[in-house]
């Protein structure tokens, strides 16, 4: 704000010193003001995209806009938003600037949430992994950097919330990841009490939820399977979840062959006891809820029949008998 104050002090001092300032002098001052604060920067990113995160203050937004050459002065942008009747701060989202715009236009757009070009609606299904997300994003937004997305998103597998998103054309992989991570944090916040009461670390909850996402469809079924899998962990029994093989081999097929059951992967829940080292998918809210709200039952085994019906068993012999439901 120092620069803004100096500019206004200079203008007012000039007016006080010259009771009848010439039109030329006033014009020069106004031109100086316009060039220094109002006009779009020379390096304005035409067609550029700016992402304003949720909870960002006006001052923080101003600094970001100045750093990306959208406004000349972050201080003047902040002063403008706060002083000229533009109330409510700035709205989070992805803004597309197709052409250079004055600071007045930029302030108005961010205050009203006028994002620019038509946004692209992208639906990420529950249970999608990072590789699948990359394919979906590339399909909906030609030119999207899928390789970079998969590379940057891999460490967040399980923590990218599947949902319907609106993205600006040309959105970056980093922006997509931030949006999905923020959404995940919001969803998990609604389950904070359940997670605390259950007592397992969030990391374990997310891994279990990713397994449930692939193993069951309905919420109540997920709760039953959740109870069975947590019980297996409690008694030291291998989880023996077939869905992990789809993740290991990068396919959607979850029925492993006898040879595949022997693959030496830390995700192989037949060979290695306990939970896998990380999530195998990005679970939705129902799966996260089911992970911390398991349904107690006398069952220790389950399988999904060819018609999609779940069949449960108390003993291994009963489980073997249920395999008849796998045949069409």
List the keywords.
Dna Ligase, domain 1, two-stranded antiparallel ribbon, 14 helices, elongated
What does this structure look like?
It is a single chain. The protein is mainly α. Among the domains are: 1-38; 120-189, Dna Ligase, domain 1 (2-Layer Sandwich); 197-297, no CATH class. 48% of the residues lie in helices and 8% in strands. The protein has 14 helices and six strands. It has helices at 2-17, 23-38, 58-67, 74-83, 103-112, 130-140, 146-153, 173-189, 192-198, 202-215, 219-234, 244-249, 285-292, 316-322, and strands spanning 48-52, 93-97, 120-123, 164-167, 301-304, 310-313. Strands 1-2 form a two-stranded antiparallel sheet. Strands 3-4 form a two-stranded antiparallel ribbon. A hairpin with a 5-residue loop joins β5 and β6 (310-313). The model has no long low-confidence stretch (mean pLDDT 83).
Give me the number of helical elements.
14
The description of the largest β-sheet is: 2 strands, antiparallel
Q: Quick check: average pLDDT?
A: 83
Tell how many strands the DSSP assignment holds: 6
Strand content: 5-15%
What's the end-to-end separation, in Å?
74 Å
Main-sheet strand order equals 1-2
Shape: elongated
- Computed CA radius of gyration, to the nearest angstrom: 28 Å
- Show unreliable segments: none
Run of helices and strands: HHEHHEHEHHEHHHHHHEEH
Helix content: 40-55%
- By helix and strand content, what is the structural category? mainly alpha
């Amino acid at each position: 704000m120092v620069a803004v104050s100096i500019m206004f002090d200079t203008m007012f001092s000039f007016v006080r010193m010259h009771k009848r300032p010439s039109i030329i002098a006033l014009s020069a001052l106004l031109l100086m003001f316009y060039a220094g604060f109002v006009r779009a920067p020379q390096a304005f990113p035409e067609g550029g995209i700016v992402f304003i995160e949720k909870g960002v203050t006006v001052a923080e937004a101003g600094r970001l806009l100045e750093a990306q050459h959208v406004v000349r002065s972050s201080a003047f942008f902040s002063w403008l938003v706060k002083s000229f009747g533009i109330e409510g701060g700035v709205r989070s989202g992805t803004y597309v600037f197709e052409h250079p715009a004055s600071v007045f236009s930029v302030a108005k757009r961010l205050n009203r949430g006028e994002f620019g070009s038509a946004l692209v609606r992208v639906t990420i299904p529950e249970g999608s992994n990072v590789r699948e997300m990359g394919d979906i994003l590339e399909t909906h937004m030609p030119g999207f950097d899928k390789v970079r997305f998969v590379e940057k998103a891999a460490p967040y597998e399980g923590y990218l919330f599947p949902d319907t998103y609106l993205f600006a054309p040309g959105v970056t992989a980093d922006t997509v990841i931030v949006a999905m991570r923020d959404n995940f944090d919001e969803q998990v916040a609604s389950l904070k009490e359940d997670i605390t009461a259950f007592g397992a670390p969030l990391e374990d909850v997310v891994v279990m939820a990713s397994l449930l996402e692939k193993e069951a469809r309905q919420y109540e079924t997920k709760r039953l399977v959740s109870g069975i899998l947590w019980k297996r962990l409690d008694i030291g029994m291998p989880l023996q979840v077939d869905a992990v093989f789809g993740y290991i081999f990068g396919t959607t097929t979850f029925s492993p062959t006898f040879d595949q059951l022997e693959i030496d992967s830390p995700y192989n829940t037949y060979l290695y006891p306990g939970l896998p080292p990380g999530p195998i998918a990005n679970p939705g809210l129902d799966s996260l809820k089911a992970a911390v709200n398991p349904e107690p039952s006398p069952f220790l085994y389950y399988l999904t029949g060819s018609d999609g019906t779940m069949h449960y068993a108390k003993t291994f012999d009963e489980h073997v008998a249920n395999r008849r439901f796998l045949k069409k």
